[in-house]
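Repro:
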Amino acid sequence: MDSAAKPNELTRRVTVGGIAVGGGAPVAVQSMLNAPAHDVAANVAQAERLADAGCEIVRMAIPRRDCLDAFAAVCGASPLPVVADVHFDACIAIEAARRGAAKLRINPGNIGGLAATDAVIDAAGEAGIPIRIGVNAGSLDAALAARDDLTLPQKLAASALDYVRHFEDRGFLDVVVSAKAHDVRTTIATYRQLAREMPQVPLHIGVTEAGTAFQGVVKSACGLGVLLEEGIGDTLRISLTDDPVTEVRACWALLAALDVRRRGPEIISCPTCGRCQVDLIGLARQVEGRLADVRKPLKVAVMGCVVNGPGEAADADMGVACGDGSGVVFSQGKVVRKVAEGDIVDVLMEEIGKL
């Protein structure tokens, strides 16, 4: 084993639909459908929007057995591999495996114990799909939750480890583990322990119940950023009380900020000050909107004055530094064109299109 390798390069590789997870594969971006479980059209439409935003794996809750027909229809029409999210009823997981699920997610705290998972394991094995053992701080097994000799991260890790050992003892190795909490420090400590104790198992990382968009992105960036920088995490979801598309965009922004993966442009823009003589906030928002559908991994600078212009953004693939009623478009620190303020965005996009 290469001691210099990152943890997520040493995990086993599993496949979710056509998406590789673990074993050094690119960190996969996930989200979850939130349309009513019985509404096939709404769920498929949302899956299509998520795919356009860069989501690679999507999860769908199956709250009742009478939602299984809808789940199967979504699996058949979705542009993304669909994970069956199952709580309380192992029979739903078994049937979902037979109806097109690309992966199963079960919760050790409410699935009915280890014995109840045996038939789930068999069904997943027959379907050739992996299982995510998804532990949550708020739904731990009662006996484990009551133990005073363990910290919460230790309890979460112990729950996951019990299930992983049971699955492996039965010869089922296509396992992914998550162990989520809403507390950032608990999340970090738990995943570090999981990476130590089960280095072979791919990890799905996330801060659960992170909150609305602003708070949730900050919490997730803190917790998941630390883990990703340490090489921990094979796939991730940023869980927000918001449109799932926002989750996907946040995932990509986080991965790009760490240079883990890039899907589209990164905007470099200064915070403005008294030297700024243009509406830089408005310009930056215009550029961000115009770049939304660009799939080139570029660095684009929108700078308010010559102080923060080509010099501090010299590594930008393309950028603009604004003055009084005008600006200069530059690339790699060298001026390309001088333009009037009203033409800045159009000219910048024109030059980006040449790259």
